[in-house]
Design goal:
Elements: H1 13-30, H2 37-44, H3 48-55, H4 58-80, H5 87-104, H6 106-116, H7 122-148, H8 157-173, H9 175-182, H10 187-190, H11 193-211
Helix pairs in contact: 1-2, 1-4, 1-6, 3-4, 4-7, 5-7, 5-8, 5-11
């Protein structure tokens, strides 16, 4: 599958983003198989031919949406630390942003996790795995920088990343269990700012204790 991220100067940039916004809403609610091109066109108030014109297929549209969602973490890191910064500051920043992004997009992220666990759409699964590796490389570089600079004790960077991502995956993928554990009557309450802040503080404390020499 070949897909090129649209340049911001492209004539159809706004229209493509409008379609992607609608696609995100529908795919998050119904999954890939539960959404048709006709559904997308109706919700976006456009004709079906326009989706084909901009993306070629529903699968390509899905990939474009995934790319748009997953590239933001790398962009955030670059913009936050254009001239470097300590490994601790970078780690805290990425944890705080990752918690918010995963919680705010938890329905969409659960679709992504489902795609990663299946070979039904192998091209999409491979695309996602490659993008996850790209984003996790940012974590790896931060941890390796901390070890090299003597700020972190020597640890296994890959397994440290698994510890962070695994905790967040469990948190966003099991709303009923999370409600029970946090004694919250609603899903929104379980993912409120109060509990997000608790998760951020927990992960930061966990990593500080684990990585401090």
């Amino acid at each position: 599958m070949k897909y090129t991220v649209t340049s911001i100067n492209d004539t159809g940039f706004e229209k493509k983003n409008q379609i992607l916004d609608v696609a995100e809403e529908l795919f998050s609610a119904n999954g890939f198989d539960g959404v048709s091109v006709r559904d997308l066109a109706k919700k976006a108030d456009i004709n079906i031919a326009m989706i084909s014109y901009y993306f070629g297929s529903k699968e390509n549209l899905y990939v474009a949406l995934l790319e748009r969602k997953m590239i933001t973490i790398r962009q955030d890191i670059r913009s936050a630390f254009p001239n470097g910064g300590s490994a601790w500051n970078k780690l805290y920043y990425i944890i705080e942003n990752y918690v918010d992004r995963m919680v705010e997009n938890r329905k969409f992220m659960n679709i992504v996790f489902s795609e990663l666990g299946t070979t039904q759409r192998e091209q999409i699964s491979n695309f996602l795995r490659n993008r996850f590796v790209d984003n996790q490389n940012a974590f790896h570089e931060i941890i390796q920088q901390g070890i090299s600079d003597g700020e972190f004790r020597p640890v296994d960077p890959q397994l440290t990343i698994v510890s962070i991502i695994g905790t967040l995956k469990l948190y966003v993928s099991n709303p009923m269990m999370v409600q029970k554990l946090l004694n919250e009557p609603t899903e929104e309450g379980a993912y409120s700012k109060k509990h997000r802040d608790r998760m951020k503080a927990h992960l930061i404390d966990l990593m500080t204790r684990f990585l401090k020499p």
